[in-house]
Amino acid sequence: DSGVTQTPKHLITATGQRVTLRCSPRSGDLSVYWYQQSLDQGLQFLIQYYNGEERAKGNILERFSAQQFPDLHSELNLSSLELGDSALYFCASSNTVTNGYTFGSGTRLTVV
Amino acid sequence: SQQGEEDPQALSIQEGENATMNCSYKTSINNLQWYRQNSGRGLVHLILIRSNEREKHSGRLRVTLDTSKKSSSLLITASRAADTASYFCATDAGGGSNYKLTFGKGTLLTVNP
Predict the structure, then answer these.
(1) Strand blocks (E) in chain B
(2) Distance between CA atoms of residues A21 and A90, nearest Å
(3) Which residues pair with B109 in a beta bridge?
(4) Other CB atoms within 10 Å distance of the CB of residue B39
(5) Max Cα separation, chain A?
């Protein structure tokens, strides 16, 4: 157990639907990062939050949004889902540069 | 966009042999990190090397960094079947609370018993 909790582990949904992925960071970590991993694109950075505020944005589609709550957990919302959104979605947290990221075990999203 | 590019894409060796993976990147960095990912699982942080360091060791891992060539290598000595995984390099070009890693596409290492 890395200390970063992601739910659900698996999600199967239809095109056009909306889903919410949840992440609880490791205790004491203020930063949360979301990544999308697919076979063709590799690990793509989506968005970073630090202590409730958005700090950096990557290749995140307008259909996707995220937030970090006062208790530091984060949610990634994916809407108007397309087949191409099928991927592994990882959340990671960190407190300092020195320790690197701690990753959760991911949510495998399948859009049918 | 990918910052780091690992080479080779795949590597197959026998148990007990050494495995070397390389990573090249494009922009100036604060540090470079290596991660391991077992199939379908989360990534695990292995080692971090700062831009002012040239070599770092951790157990059976040895990482080198050449900032003039914008490249790094990860050496795993005396490999074991349990080392079978994908290995990613990641670069940090930001700073402070805007610390953001960019990952390469990884090297798939297979260690045959």
Answers:
(1) 5-7, 10-14, 19-24, 31-37, 43-50, 55-58, 61-66, 71-76, 85-92, 101-103, 107-112
(2) 10
(3) B11, B85
(4) 8
(5) 41
- Tell me how far apart the alpha carbons of residues A112 and A96 are, in angstroms, rounded to a whole number: 39
Q: Can you state the percent helix, strand and coil of chain A, rounding each to 5?
A: 5, 55, 45
CA dihedral sign of residues A104, A91, A74, A94: positive
Closest CA of chain A from B111, distance in Å: 22
Residue B98 backbone phi and psi in degrees, to 5: -100, 35
Q: Token digits for A85?
A: 């959104």
Residues of A in contact with B2 (CB under 8 A): 42
Q: Give residue-wise pLDDT tens across range A57-111.
A: 998 999 999 999 999 999 999 999 999 999 999 999 998 766 789 999 999 999 9
CA distances from A2 to A37, B6, B45 (A): 19, 25, 10
pLDDT value of position B1:
44
**Which helix (H) or strand (E) element contains residue A75?**
strand A74-78
Q: State whether B92 and A30 contact (CB < 8 Å).
A: no
Give the angle subtended at the CA of B85 by the CAs of B70 and A12, to the nearest 5°: 110
* A contacts of B61 (beta carbons < 8 Å): none
DSSP letters, A10-32, are EEEE-TT--EEEEEEPPTT--EE
Note whether B3 contacts A: Cβ–Cβ < 8 A.
no
